[in-house]
Every structure is written in C-alpha cells, then in structure tokens.
Amino acid sequence: MLFSVELPASQYYRITVRHCAGSHKENPLLFNGVKMLDIISENGGWAETTVDGIYLEKGKNTITLGDGWSWFSLDSIRIENSGALSDEIYSGIDDTLSNPYANLKTQNIYQYLKAIYGKRTLAGQCTDYGNNTETDALYLGLGKYPAIRAFDFIYDSMSFCNGTPQAKDVDLAIQWSSDGGLVVYDWHWYAPYGKCGFYKDDTDFRLSRAVTSVDIAELPLDEIQKLQKSGKISIETLKIIEDIDNISALMKRMEDAGVTVLWRPLHEASGGWFWWGASGADDYKWLWKLMYRRMTDYHELDNLIWVWNAQSADWYPGDEYCDIAAVDIYNGAHDYSTSSSVLQDMSTWNSGNKKMVAMSECAAMPDPNLIVRDNAYWLWFAVWNWDYIVKNGTTELSDEYTSFEMMKKVYNSKVVITRDELPDFNK
Is the CB of residue 124 less than 8 Å from the CB of residue 149? Predict the structure, then answer.
C-alpha cells in the first residue's frame, strides 16, 4: 500500500495523478484493489493523467501499486467530486458503416447495435479453436448462449499452415450465425514470412520492411508479384498481401453463407508484443489501411463491420477505416467493475464520439448493477476463453474469474442481451 485516504461520501470522483511521463513498462495504480490507471516508468517530463467517473465508498480507501518492473516518479494524486458517465458519450454515433456497399444484413446489425448502445450490453464469449467448449459450457450451466461469439483465424495464417489453411472455425461461425448469434473474428496472425510466430520475440519478421509507398491495395496478385520480382516492393509486402487474400477467401465463404463478421484484426497493437505493432503506430496504420482497402475495395467484402482494437488513441487509423472501437481489459479475478473511466476516455479517441465502444476481451464479467450505476454500457463484453470460463477444457464452468452466482446474475439480467433475445437480422 502506498497510502490511504478518507473520503466524505460514497459517490463518483475524478482522480488526477501527476507523474513522470515515459514509454516504458506500465505500473498500475489501484484504488481498493481495482486498477484506475497506469503510471509509465520514468523516461521523460512531468505529465498528468486523469480518470473520471470513479465510484469510491465513504471512509477509508487504500491506494496501492500493482506489479511493475521498473522505476517511476509520482508527485501527487488529486481526488475531486465528479459524477457518473454522461449519456452524451452514447450520442453522435455514425449513421452508417464505413463501407457504403455493406449488404442489408450487415447494415441491419449495425443499426441494431446503434439502437441498443447506451441502453444494454451484449454478452460475449471468446472460444477455443475448432470446438464449442465454452459456449456449450455456458448453455449447460446457465441455460443461455452469449449473444456474441468470438472466433479466430489463428490456424489460417499461410506460414503456420504451410500454405493450407485449416479453417477450423469457419463452419462453426456459419452455424453460430445460422442459429441467430453474432460473429466476431480475431486473427492471431502468424508472420507471413521468416520465422513463424505472432509474438514479436518469436519471429524475425518486421513490418517496417513491408511498408511501401507503392499503392498495391487494389492490384491483382500477379501484378503485385511482378512488382516484387522487379524489386519495387519487398518479399514481406508480397507475403502480407497473400495472407490477406487468403483470409478474404474465407470471409467470402462466410459472406456467401449469410454471415456478417464483426472483424477485429491487428489487435492490441500498441502493446508492441505482436509483430504488427512492434514497428510503431505509423507502420501499423499503413497495414490497417492496406488491409481495409484490400478487403473492402478489391475483394468487395460487404459483410464486414470493422472493429479497431489497437488500445491507444495515437494508433487510430481514421473514422473512414473502422466502424467500432474496442479495448481489451484484464482486471483481477472476481473484479466485476465496469472500467467506466476507460469507456469515457475511449469515447474521446475519435472525432465527435462517432464510434461505439466495446470491451473485446476481459477476464471477468461486469456486474449488471454496476453497469447501471456507472452508466457504463459497453457495446459488448467478451470473456477470454479456456480457464477464464471453463475447467481444463471441459464443458464445466469455472468460477476462477467469475463466480457462478455472478454468471447467473449477468445472463439473467435485463441489462445484458443473450443470443435468444437477438432479432432476425435477415428481415
């Protein structure tokens, strides 16, 4: 514990920390065991970080520092009266998708998401690859399925599969959509060239060697291959295109089957641990825009809702290149707080609060009572898979991160939407 503070009332507060700015490891600052903000290791001048809409109880509140490996400088912590999140953060959302040619079902889904935003939250679940373990466990234990299921193209990177994608999840996604659920797709992208791995430290592939000023987004593959052979673009650039084309073929298969995909590629980029984020924000934005244009304009995929999840405002590619903003939040086990300060902060990351905001990965389900109290209606939350929700890969629910009672509370709450409550998006 750093110290404790006596507060006069149970209410919302604004917390401002004056600390040394930098770019090194984050040191989480916690109030009563709940992370409020990160302090950056000392590497620059003084800066202030503010989080708003934090509910603290009357009386003694403890302030502690979480795990961190390096030094930092802390000057002051200022606590002021505040209030719950304003309804204004849910207004001004873009009327239409970034792709004006999106098909009718995809447009219907987007309009539905707009209609519930700020009023209710979709239950979501990330799942293992090629099976229904987590969703089966939820149905067996709670009698309901989540509204959203998150799949992954992890087995479809050309380098990982030696040029033969396994498409483990595509049939499952088609079935999930047919059963009335919403589909999210992630991509743990094994580096398209060089040593096979998606973590920066597991591969020698570097995005900086692929970035080019040559406009290749809408060129046929054979023309791009000629550019590479002539030395005008690198082999890394070519391999990125080949992988995007491969994933686009799988997306086309789902489009033909009537599946709309909430597409969340290149996630957690600003953390720097994945190769697509290790070369910095500018290279990342080049790749995002290339992928967007290749899939939308060249492959004409009209079933995608683009979900941007780089975790930092400095990495935002622009309103015209995405439809929804998302963030991954891993609070501690049995921490059911809403992370409302993050939601408020993210609502200012793009121009005019134009994008809805989702919690695309989390450790524990948020308490519906706190969602209402904090006015913190994330578009959806998605609990991570494996031991975050089930026991040892079985279809038995685990209470390691969310208690059984809280799971029942969440899945039976009027605040949270499950699959059985979704409308027919084909009408």
Answer: yes
Give tens-digit pLDDT for 122-169: 999 999 999 999 999 999 999 999 999 999 999 898 877 676 777 889
Tokens standing for residue 52? 């708003």
Q: Which tokens sit at 258?
A: 């009537």
Active-site pick, 26, 361, 396, 400: 361
Strands 148-152 and 121-126: parallel
What span, in angstroms and rounded, lies between the C-alpha atoms of 217 and 300?
12
Residue 255: active-site member:
no
Which segments in the chain show pLDDT lower than 50? Answer: 23-24, 42
Q: What six digits make up the tokens of 323?
A: 């439809």
The pTM for the full model equals 0.89
Catalytic hit among 134, 236, 255, 268 = 268
Q: Is 57 a catalytic residue?
A: no
* Cα gap 173→175, rounded to integer Å: 5
Which pLDDT tens digit goes with each residue over 305-345? 999 999 888 999 999 999 999 999 998 899 999 998 889 88
Q: What is the 3-state secondary structure (H, E, C) of 143-176?
A: CCCECEEEEECHHHCCCCCCCCCCCCCHHHHHHH
Burial class from Cβ neighbours inside 10 Å (0-12, 13-18, 19+) for residue 295 reads buried
Q: What is the largest CA-CA distance in the chain?
A: 71
Nearest Cα to Cα of residue 212 among 143, 271, 318, 283: 283
Q: Nearest CA to 292 among 254, 326, 323, 252? A: 323
Give the pLDDT score at 52: 72
Element (DSSP H or E) covering residue 228: helix 221-229
Rg (Cα) of the chain, in Å, rounded? 22
Q: What is the pLDDT of residue 3?
A: 76
Contact 233, 216 (CB under 8 A): yes
Domains of the chain: 3-81 (2.60.120.260), 87-421 (3.20.20.80)
